Amino acid sequence: MKKETKAARVERIKREKDGLNVLDDLYRYAQSGETVDPEDIDRFKWYGLYTQNRSLQDANDTTQYFMLRVKLEGGALTLKQLEAVGNISVTYARGSADFTTRQDIQFHWIQIDDLPEIFAQLHAVGLSTQLAAGDCVRNVVCCPLNGIDADQTADVTTIVSQLNHEFRDNALFSNLPRKFKIGVCGCHKHCIGHEIQDLSFTAVALKHRGTLFSVAVGGGLGSNRRIADHIGYIGFHQTLEVAKAATELFRDHGNRDNRSKARLGHLIEQWGIQKFVTILENKLGFQLLQDDAPTITPYAQRTHFGIHQSTLNGESYIGCAVNSGTIGGNSLLELADILRTDEAQGIRVTPTQNFVVVGVSDDRTLSLAASLEAIGFSAFPSVFKARTLACTGLNFCKFAVSETKFLAQKIVNHLQEEFPDFSEPLSISVNGCPNSCAHPNIVDIGLVGCIVKEGNRRIGGFELLFYGHLEGEKSHFGIKNGIKVTPENAPYVIADLIREYQQNGSYSFKSFLQQKVS
């Protein structure tokens, strides 16, 4: 009998029981204590659950722990929601909590037995884990300043809500060939990274046409590493229709035989962009308006740190940095207490693992910023802390070969100490494997997990990528330069690069990195 391939196994599992239908089984396992069917474990992803690496687990502890991801639609957490996720972290997740690049929050050390109570606590404050993972439409990313940024191109809050609502609990879109990532951008800084989304809508003010959405398709950073193609413009009222049609094309024609070639970008590569657009327009029954691709903000300028006045009278917002997205349960609870004391409304998580405090009275901004700084969240971060990303890493991820979170913090601390006056924008990503969860291909310096030699030993380390960049059609991915480092040496190698740049005479750090890979 022919051995079942990985892709065939996944497709069979999804056909036999949709991921949305595993919730009752999950409760049954929690209450009965029976051994979980491995195929149901795969379906658990549709409710945000992944099995956890055992690297930090005691040898005599046979418990199967999980990572649990919670969707934050619009990236938003109210004060009650902040308290809820903080309590879940402290009570059930050993204090773990990380923000993700899709504006979600995730925990580790979760046990099946605790899930009914965790889900009840999330439900009580309007949060859910449904479709936070799995072969489905993931959380729709957007600018955290929707509706409150005076410089925004458009307020897309309603559209983001409509898209999330359409795909939520919808069996028509719960069995896709792979994950499907949508972004909606009304931000004048283009902070969502539309270039790496499967499908994105970017608000653009066009001369003589008003404000429309630029539609881009086929972006990605994993096995489908490619910059999304701008395919035309649509009116805001057409967004949902285009999103559904594009997702249906992916559902019906995406590759289900090879999971490493199963993203929308792979389908576009197979068909060609013109064929994809033609089929999409035939399905829609109308043509996209054609005009030049929009001018896009460079990646280095896509930040929202600092204190800024909101569009709402008497209110401001404060953008804060979180070192590599790691926040922890105690800090979540401290943050909730501080915001309540200063009568702020809550936070919105950014696509770069940071957050913005919203609903701050103008007269409380400075005192609140000082309180946030005291617990490690800087409104005016160093250039190193501002844009350093990190994936889950070896401690919890089964794919990783290298630890990431603590190393990212070590790198930031070392560089801040060595270069306290360095002010040029610099982005770093620490990624524990080649899967690109922390976006190492689009930053100035990307660390990608690999096996390196240390004397006679082979250990988990990193290969460096230089000169990644996002800027619409000017985007390019990071380039390998032959440098491999051990985790211990990584902070010092990056510091040496900065010293070399300072002595080199290059007009910018980015141009210096370009020289290193030319």
Topology:
Layout: H1 6-16, H2 23-32, H3 38-43, E1 49-51, E2 66-70, E3 76-78, H4 79-92, E4 98-99, E5 105-110, H5 115-124, E6 141-142, H6 157-167, E7 182-185, E8 199-206, E9 210-217, E10 229-234, H7 239-253, H8 264-271, H9 273-284, E11 306-309, E12 315-320, H10 329-341, E13 346-349, E14 355-361, H11 365-374, H12 383-386, E15 388-390, H13 405-418, E16 428-431, E17 445-454, E18 457-466, E19 479-485, H14 490-504, H15 509-517
In round numbers, the mean pLDDT is 96
The value of Rg in angstroms is: 22 Å
What's the structural domain tally?
A: 3
Q: Going across the major beta sheet, what is the strand order?
A: 3-13-14-12-11
CATH class of the largest domain: Alpha Beta
Named CATH topology of the largest domain: Sulfite Reductase Hemoprotein, domain 1
Strand coverage percent: 15-25%
Share of helix, binned: 25-40%
| Terminal Cα span | 51 Å
User: Low-confidence parts lasting 5 or more residues at pLDDT below 50?
Assistant: none
Largest sheet: 5 strands, antiparallel
What does this structure look like?
By secondary structure, the chain is α+β, with helices and mostly antiparallel strands. It has three domains: 119 residues, Sulfite Reductase Hemoprotein, domain 2 (Alpha-Beta Complex); 139 residues, Sulfite Reductase Hemoprotein, domain 1 (2-Layer Sandwich), CATH 3.30.413; 132 residues, 2-Layer Sandwich (Sulfite Reductase Hemoprotein, domain 1). The protein contains 15 helices and 19 strands. The strands form four sheets. A five-stranded antiparallel β-sheet has the order 3-13-14-12-11. It has a five-stranded mixed β-sheet with strand order 6-7-8-9-10. α7 packs across α9. The longest helix has 15 residues. The radius of gyration is 22 Å and the shape is globular.
